[in-house]
Specification:
Layout (H helix, E strand, L loop, with lengths): L10 H4 L8 H9 L6 H19 L4 H32 L12
């Protein structure tokens, strides 16, 4: 990310260089297989969204887009979790429930 070229030279005064994330950086990391887990990618996406809100302000146009993007990601994660649970239930759903042994 080049804040000067983007017309925001003060960016690294607000967002430390080590924490800077943008879609170009995320794409480069994806293309170079730098993410070892989906959680690593999610962490960078979350950081990018937090940075956008922090730098631009939540009420700005960019901040509002970032908030909406964060909410949509949450929705998709929830849907994916529900889908995985349903698939898991189907895989083990035909098995009878185990009975507890009587003591005594």
């Amino acid at each position: 990310m080049d804040p000067i070229a983007l017309g925001i030279p003060q960016y690294h005064d607000i967002i430390p260089r080590k924490d800077a994330r943008d879609l170009r950086t995320v794409r480069q990391k994806l293309d170079a297989d730098k993410y070892e887990t989906p959680e690593g990618w999610e962490a960078d996406m979350d950081l990018m969204i937090r940075n956008a809100i922090h730098f631009n302000g939540e009420e700005s146009e960019v901040g509002q887009i970032a908030v909406a993007f964060r909410e949509r990601i949450k929705e998709l994660r929830t849907q994916q979790g529900q889908k995985k649970r349903k698939e898991s239930d189907k895989a083990g759903g035909d098995q009878p429930a185990t009975k507890k042994a009587k003591l005594g």
